[in-house]
Amino acid sequence: MRFILDNYDRFAALVEKYVDIPELTTAIVNEFIKKIIVHEADKSSGHRRQTVEIVFNFVGQLELPILTEPITLEAPQKQRKTA
Predict the structure, then answer these.
(1) CA dihedral 31, 62, 13, 36 (to 10 degrees)
(2) Mode of pairing for the β-strands spanning 60-61 and 33-38
(3) Which tens digit of pLDDT belongs to each residue from 6-60?
(4) Among residues 65, 2, 7, 6, which one has the least CA distance to residue 34?
(5) Cα–Cα distance list, 83 to 23, 66, 78, 80 (Å)
(6) What pLDDT score does 8 carry?
(7) Residue pair 52/39 in contact by the 8 Å Cβ criterion
(8) In which order are the strands placed within the sheet that holds 52-56?
């Protein structure tokens, strides 16, 4: 039981540290997330489905709702150098 309370206290302190952040940075994400597991895509139904597991620091893996709408990710635009 003490382990759970210690983890809760550590997670609560981390959340409190970032209550009013103006921007989510890589450093902040790294403090919250222990690992991300990306599974191989499944195309057996005719649609491409891919499972992604996120394991948070101090909390572990949370069951998140399954998205019914696809997510489209755009590649970041490269900035062109001007002479």
Answers:
(1) 0
(2) unpaired
(3) 778 888 888 888 888 888 899 988 988 888 899 998 888 888 888 888 888 877 7
(4) 7
(5) 30, 47, 16, 10
(6) 80
(7) yes
(8) 33-38, 52-56, 60-61
Q: Which residue has the higher pLDDT, 46 or 2?
A: 46
Residue 8 token pair: 């809760």
> Rounded to whole angstroms, how far apart are CA atoms 25 and 58?
19
Ramachandran class of 46: left when φ > 0, alpha when ψ lies in -120 to 50, beta otherwise = left
- State CA 72 to chain mean position distance: 16
Whose structure tokens read 């998205």?
A: 67
User: Does the pTM of the predicted model rise above 0.85?
Assistant: no
34 neighbors 57 (Cβ within 8 angstroms): yes
**Token output for 66:** 């399954």
- Confidence check: pLDDT of 5 > 80: no
